[in-house]
């Protein structure tokens, strides 16, 4: 095929790093079970291959993982937050409230949630949270457009209130309710044909 060995080896290495191939020295190369051995790079590669479209199964899976970590983050932040943390969250909320652009709003809400993951005190949550940014933010864009925008902002305000008042149980309930609401909002507007990821 007139392709140099270096280009082929580079392609194999990249596919192996993304969890699609299993390379065993002196034995060969096999197609890997990406669900068993893949990473977040694998998810991004699949989304790019699908033209930026989420399958319904992938959509449920992404939101399920986010919900699972957000619950613990909310409980930790509402328990441990400092006055400095509150100032940071209040500043982000102010920007959220003033934002008229849905794209900017979805990015600001991600920043608010990411700040919470950093404030949780768990070293791994911010890394997981940030790794999902590219796939999660476009989904949240759906909830930042009308007719959902105002309700989305109210939800952030409610969560901030529970964090301010150090009420972890209510913060957890707010996350649970917010995720149910997000699933319903996305379900109303989601189209498998639309590109959500670039």
Question: Can you characterise this structure?
Answer:
- This protein has helices spanning 5-17, 34-37, 40-49, 56-80, 83-98, 102-119, 125-131, 133-143, 149-164, 168-189; strands spanning 21-24, 28-31.
- The chain has a two-stranded antiparallel sheet with strand order 1-2.
- It has 198 residues and is mostly helical.
- It is built from ten helices and two strands, in the order αββααααααααα.
- A hairpin with a 3-residue loop joins β1 (21-24) and β2 (28-31).
- It is elongated, with a radius of gyration of 20 Å.
- The mean pLDDT is 87.
Strand order of the largest sheet: 1-2
Low-confidence spans: none
Strand residues, percent? under 5%
The secondary-structure element order is HEEHHHHHHHHH
- Helical proportion, percent range: over 70%
Can you tell me the overall shape? elongated
Radius of gyration from the CA trace? 20 Å
DSSP summary: helix tally: 10
- Termini separation comes to 30 Å
Largest sheet: 2 strands, antiparallel
Based on secondary structure, the structural category is: mainly alpha
Mean pLDDT equals 87
What oligomeric arrangement do these chains adopt? single chain
What is the count of β-strands?
2
């Amino acid at each position: 095929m007139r392709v140099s060995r270096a280009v082929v080896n580079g392609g194999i290495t990249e596919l192996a790093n993304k969890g699609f191939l299993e390379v065993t020295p002196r034995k060969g190369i096999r197609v890997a079970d990406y669900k068993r051995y893949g990473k977040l790079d694998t998810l991004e590669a699949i989304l790019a291959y699908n033209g930026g479209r989420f399958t319904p199964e992938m959509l449920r899976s992404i939101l399920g993982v986010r919900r699972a970590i957000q619950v613990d983050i909310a409980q930790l932040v509402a328990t441990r937050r400092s006055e400095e943390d509150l100032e940071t969250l209040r500043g982000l909320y102010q920007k959220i409230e003033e934002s008229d652009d849905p794209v900017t709003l979805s990015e600001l809400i991600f920043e608010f949630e990411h700040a919470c993951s950093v404030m949780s005190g768990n070293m791994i949550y911010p890394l997981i949270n940030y790794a999902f940014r590219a796939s999660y933010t476009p989904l949240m864009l759906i909830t930042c457009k009308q007719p959902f925008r105002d309700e989305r902002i109210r939800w952030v305000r409610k969560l901030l209130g529970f964090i301010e008042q150090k009420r972890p149980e209510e913060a957890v309930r707010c996350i649970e309710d917010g995720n149910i609401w997000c699933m319903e909002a996305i379900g109303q507007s989601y189209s498998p044909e639309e590109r959500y990821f670039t």
